[in-house]
Amino acid sequence: MLDDSLHAQFAAILPPAALLTSAEDTRPYECDGLTLFRERPAAVLLPENEAQVVAILKACFEARIPVVARGAGTSLSGGALPDARGVVLSLAKFRKILAIDPLTRTATVQPGVRNLAISEAAAVHGLFYAPDPSSQIACSIGGNVAENAGGVHCLKYGLTVHNVRRVRAVLITGETVEFGGDAQDSAGYDLLALINGSEGLLAVITEITVKLCAKPQQAQVALAAFADVEHAGAAVGAIIGAGIIPAGLEMMDQPATRAVEQFVHANYPLDAAAVLLVESDGTNEEVAAEMAEIKRVLAEAGATEIRVSKDDAQRELRISPDYYCIDGTIPRAALPRVLREIALWSKEFGLTCANVFHAGDGNLHPLILFDANKPGESEKTIEFGDRILRLCIEVGGTITGEHGVGVEKLSSMCVQFTSAELERFHAVKHAFDADELLNPGKAVPTLARCGEFGKKSAMRRGTS
Ligand SMILES: Cc1cc2nc3c(=O)[nH]c(=O)nc-3n(C[C@H](O)[C@H](O)[C@H](O)COP(=O)(O)OP(=O)(O)OC[C@H]3O[C@@H](n4cnc5c(N)ncnc54)[C@H](O)[C@@H]3O)c2cc1C
Question: What is the distance of C-alpha 414 from the center of its chain?
């Protein structure tokens, strides 16, 4: 519940329809894409300009109440989960594309603009915005910056952080700041990189300038079938090792192809243990030469069948598998080992695990299938997922590839980072937000939580 004085302040800043407090109005904001965690905020605020954001943040700062910024709410890690003591600050009304400049190949947009809308607007100039999360039809560019989103084409074109030139944001105190600019580099610490992936903990983003790329003349996808997942995993390394940087390099194992074929009708070879989807883009000549090389490497790596898309419709069907659950990243060379261990654990736990992932980036998305109605299956699933993330760290990878930490992976952060490292993360947070009002309790665990988690894990492993 908002206290009367704060309610009056928000009512003076926003029109009545932009200040939601009833249970019915706030319920749609109680979770994001991770529906396992739910919390109703005291209020949802829907400003439509930066002056309103500044005034809201000043009021929240003075009252010391938490603020959770929200874009489209598609986060899969609970990043936009509300705090019951505070407000959700929705950027959904910040939907203007402010400028598209074909000369500098940049677009300046408000944070609530949908990812795909940028490419749609830039298309008249033969340009597009490259980072393409599978949620691009719905997710906002503000949320993409906050999560440093990735996608199929990030192997060749880079993650969000590599495609953002400038960010304007408001601090919890109400001051506005700008990071980055038109030049390639700027003086001082690289705070533009810091704001990318900061999960709403450092500032509320109000304007973004992104880089645009020239639309390639042509694109084709090769689909390669493999008799086992290890050979498919090794083929990923072989492609990169041959000096090819494909536009996309995705992998699906058999449970995944069997599950999605009936929906997408891409004619996947269902008897293959795994398929690789390798995309090439560029001029007609570049694609022809690169495709020939890709086919050669795939055949040498043991592909049992290779098909190349004949048109754009076939290419898009194959390159857009949308199945998600766990999100971890490993060095490409570790793919065969990690896939082998996941398959063994799948048998050990008696749980099917489908894998669809951005193989070129080493970004795994194992999808463990379970039945919560069967006693003990939820716990087994959590244990299985925890083992996969620990393995990611063990082979030199990380516990998140693109979905962020949010609330979902707080405990996994305790495994990946030492106390000294976590303390530095907290110090950065405090440099921006000393009272921990912006998205509190997300992304960086407290040392107390890690101590508790360490004890529980040791007990589970029988080492305490
Ligand atoms: C079907 C599906 C497929 C997906 N595929 C991918 C994928 O391929 N790659 C990928 O990276 N992700 C993927 N995601 C996850 C999600 O879409 C991304 O994390 C996306 O970037 C979130 O954007 P959003 O606008 O929905 O942000 P939200 O979910 O609203 O918020 C996410 C985080 O960003 C913060 N935030 C939002 N806006 C702002 C702002 N203006 N200022 C400061 N902080 C802000 C929030 O506080 C929160 O911490 C997928 C999700 C779904 C449901």
Answer: 20
Q: Which amino acid is at 192?
A: L
Q: Which residues line ligand 1 (CB under 6 A)?
A: 32-33, 68-76, 79-80, 91, 111, 133-135, 139-140, 142-144, 146-147, 149-151, 199-200, 204-205, 322, 324, 402-403, 439
pLDDT for res 35: 82
- Residues (pLDDT < 50) of the chain are 320-324, 464
The bridge status of strand 87-90 relative to strand 67-70 is: parallel
Please give the pLDDT value at position 461: 58
The ligand 1 atom at the shortest distance from the C-alpha of residue 68 is 47
Supply the residue whose CA is at minimum distance from atom 6 of ligand 1.
133
Q: Nearest C-alpha to atom 5 of ligand 1 is from which residue?
A: 134
Report pLDDT digits (tens) over 61-88: 999 999 999 999 999 899 999 999 999 9
Owner of token pair 């439509």: 48
Ligand 1 center from residue 305 Cα (angstroms): 36
**CA atoms in the 13 A half-sphere facing the CB of 346:** 15
- Note whether 403 and 76 are within 8 A (CB): yes
Single pTM value for the model: 0.90
